[in-house]
Design brief:
single chain; alpha/beta; 2 domains; 8-stranded mixed beta sheet; two-stranded antiparallel ribbon; 52% helix; binds uridine-5'-diphosphate-glucose; binds manganese (II) ion; transmembrane; membrane
């Protein structure tokens, strides 16, 4: 047995998903067989066959990327007990907590408040924590809500710590009746519980009341009275300060609304994160940062300690830039009708990255090493005592002209602790300066340092840049799960989110930040680069998917075929692929229905949201329009019944059209059949089954045709799709004549 002090603080276990590997290899085998058969034996160069060959080649390429990512999965296990033996409480490093919010309507302040409360109650010495909330809406309501939250936190945090409560976001805690089951064993607990519930009710009431009657903009709120959310100077307020530096009171809480001017691009969330980095650099400058979106709360109060196991481990210390925790959601609907819970995805794909250079940064639920954001590489150490004028100029060109910030950044880069300001308010003037929108002008912020600009998936862009400098990352899947958040409530919000992701990802793929360049000119490992390409090519994938989806209909209508005579190749492929995805779902503990919903949503999302995300980037390349960061609507609890909703957005056009086209083709084939022209039929069961499969996938749309209200497809969409389908059928006829 090793010495207690040399044992690693975390271990990486290599998982053996042999069954998955075998099934995946079979799938690849049949894909290659199919391509080979088409090219060397079938040699059919009709339009549908050539198109099918092209699509199948792309699917094979995607499949190779998928297998590459999944092939060597790992799980990271942290040893809290060893950390506690090695590092005393007073030696734990400081941790700055960042929360972003941007719209008090789409992101109700009560949700942000819960996120903040759960952070303030972390099991970590509170004099090492500071919580910074960035409010991009500059909303007096959010400000007021946080102020009230700070008061409530004074009783909430001690309550959580006294009874070792697991979920420290009150709205979730009180929604779970099991949490009060201790009442028989401990009357004292029950009394406290009742009081907390009542006090939380008051807090919620106050915030709701303020939302309805709007906050009177006098006194402390006067500063909000004359501002427009898109045109105002920076507002930074210390809502609570742990002045005596005690370990058992509340951590600092700071409100930040950065300066905004209509003529200056604010770079969405990435811009907000960089302001948070600078302001916190001036105030507390912790060597580590945890960043959460306002819709995610802490579910495991010990998670910061788990992350420290990785950061402080002798190996992790040199290599690991960030520790990403999985994204999981509360109140998921039964059987995941919108396929947005991403459970199997994080297990199989997420685990797979662990065996490569590490999981990508997913924008939230992530612990960072601050110096990484200042541009440092793992092997690079800034030498002490290099304070000549040249270095200062270089630092100014990189970090901007704030003397105090450069001082703090230099400390971070040198790995030294900064003797902190005894009073946070002393930094307010400098903080306002670094939160101004002109501050980044002609600096490296957003280009080489901080969160990078230029993509609506700023997380992935930043992640790529970190891996390209040779850093590794780790996924920390603690039990209980580290954080829980709010997932899109219906298919419309889900589409908005997926479209934004895919436009951001396609943007990166088609830019100089492409992961393949990162491999050629940077330090991304080859397989990691392919792992990035796997999800960055989601947008591109929508084109062959749509093409492949209309092929069976085309063939039935034109009485031709896109499948080779050896139909068993396609059949085996279909069966094996579905068996393997099904078994993965079942092994992750999901139901058969969940699996089917995910399959179906995969088809629908790819051909609508991903396609539109991809189009958005083509429009950007043609300089016609620029993609924006559309914020998704957040809810405290689920309000959807799982039925699809529709509106007049063109995003529903491709799906409705594909459904119409399949229906037309099925009717056509039925006619031919009943007219007994079977002897001349050019297509086989394959094409008909493909069409039927697609109709099954698009069942929610079929139902939408017969529903009214928000669950029905609007007439305008039906009308436009009917025209498109008609044009398609007409086109099919034309190709026959040609
Ligand atoms: O101008 C903006 C726009 C957004 N946000 C914040 O960004 C976060 C993410 O927005 P959300 O609407 O919740 O998007 P999601 O799709 O749920 O977010 C995922 O995808 C984003 C990239 O598209 C990442 O930034 C997120 O971390 C990741 O969770 C929220 O806290 C927002 O308040 C800002 O601070 N400023
Ligand atoms: Mn979100």
């Amino acid at each position: 047995m090793g010495n207690e002090n040399t044992l690693p603080l975390y271990d990486k276990i290599w998982l053996k998903y042999t069954f998955s590997r075998v099934m995946d290899s079979f799938t690849l085998f049949f894909l290659l067989l199919l391509l080979g058969y088409r090219i060397f034996y079938d040699k059919n160069y009709s339009i549908p066959c050539v198109l099918a060959l092209l699509c199948e080649s792309w699917f094979t390429f995607t499949w190779i990327l998928t297998m590459n990512t999944k092939w060597s999965p790992t799980r990271t296990i942290t040893h809290l007990d060893r950390l506690m033996l090695r590092v005393s409480e007073s030696e734990l490093p400081a941790l700055d907590l960042f929360v972003t919010t941007a719209d008090p309507v789409l992101e109700p302040p009560i949700i942000t408040v819960n996120t903040v409360l759960s952070l303030l109650a972390l099991d970590y010495p509170s004099n090492k924590l500071a919580c910074y909330v960035s409010d991009d809406a500059c909303s007096p309501l959010t400000f007021y809500a946080l102020q009230e939250a700070a008061k409530f936190a004074e009783i909430w945090v001690p309550f959580c710590k006294k009874y070792n409560i697991q979920c420290r976001a009150p709205f979730r805690y009180f929604s779970d009746e099991d949490n009060v089951s201790k009442k028989e064993d401990s009357p004292e607990f029950y009394q406290d519980w009742l009081r907390m519930k009542e006090e939380y009710g008051f807090l919620k009431g106050k915030i709701e009341n303020a939302a309805q009657n709007s906050v009177p903009l006098v006194g402390e709120w006067a500063i909000f009275s004359s501002i427009k959310p898109t045109n105002h100077s920076a507002i930074i307020k210390v809502l609570w300060e742990n002045k005596e530096n005690l370990i058992d009171v509340l951590p600092h809480l700071i409100y930040i609304s950065r300066e905004k001017r209509p003529e200056q691009s604010h770079q969405y969330k990435a811009g907000a994160m960089n302001v948070l980095t600078r302001v916190s650099g001036l105030m507390t400058n912790a060597p580590f940062i945890l960043n959460l979106d306002c819709d995610m709360h802490v579910n495991n109060p010990k998670i910061a300690l788990h992350a420290m196991c990785i950061f402080l481990d002798s190996k992790g210390e040199k290599e690991v830039a960030f520790v990403q925790c999985p994204q999981q959601f509360y109140d998921g609907l039964r059987d995941d009708p919108f396929g947005n819970q991403l459970v199997a995805l994080f297990v199989y794909m997420g685990g797979g990255y662990g065996g490569l250079q590490g999981i990508f940064y997913a924008g939230t639920n992530c612990f960072h090493r601050r110096k990484v954001f200042y541009g440092l590489c793992p092997s690079h150490y800034i030498q002490n005592g290099k304070n000549g004028g040249g270095v200062t100029n270089e630092m100014e060109a990189t970090f901007g002209t704030s003397k105090r910030f450069i001082e703090s950044a230099t400390h971070t880069l040198e790995g030294k602790m900064l003797t902190l300001n005894d009073n946070l308010c002393n930094s307010l003037e400098d903080a306002t300066k670094v939160a101004s929108c002109g501050f980044e002008h002609d600096t490296a912020w957003g280009k080489q340092v901080g969160w990078l600009y230029g993509s609506t998936s700023e997380d992935i862009l930043t992640s790529l840049n970190i891996h390209a400098r040779g850093w590794r990352s780790e996924m920390c899947s603690s039990d209980p799960i580290a954080f829980k958040g709010c997932s899109p409530q219906d298919n419309i919000v889900n589409m908005i989110q997926q479209k934004r992701w895919v436009s951001g990802l396609s943007d990166i793929l088609l830019s100089k930040h492409n992961p393949i360049f990162g491999f050629l000119y940077g330090k991304i490992q080859f397989r990691q680069a392919l792992g990035y390409v796997w999800f960055m090519s989601w947008g591109v994938r929508s084109v062959p998917e749509i093409c492949y989806a209309v092929l069976p209909a085309y063939c039935i209508i034109t009485n031709s075929s896109f499948m080779p005579k050896k139909i068993w190749i396609h059949t085996s492929l279909f069966v094996i692929y579905n068996m393997s995805t099904l078994s993965e779902s079942l092994k992750t503990g999901l139901s058969i229905r969940t699996w089917w919903n995910n399959q179906k949503m995969m088809r629908i999302t790819t051909m609508s949201a991903w396609f539109f995300g991809f189009l958005a980037i083509l429009l950007k390349l043609l300089q016609i329009s620029k993609p924006v960061f559309e914020i998704t609507k957040k809810h405290e609890s689920s309000s959807s019944d799982g039925r699809f909703s529709f509106n007049e957005s063109p995003i529903f056009l491709p799906s409705t059209t594909i459904l119409f086209v399949q229906l037309t083709s099925l009717v056509t084939s039925l006619f031919r059949w009943s007219l007994r022209v079977g002897s001349e039929v050019g297509y086989g069961y394959g094409e008909v089954l493909c069409s039927a499969y697609l109709v099954a996938c698009y069942l929610p749309f079929l139902k939408g045709l017969f529903r009214t209200g928000k669950h029905g497809i609007p007439l305008s969409i039906i009308f436009k799709s009917a025209i498109l389908s008609f044009l398609f059928v007409h086109l099919c006829k034309l190709t026959i004549i040609v």
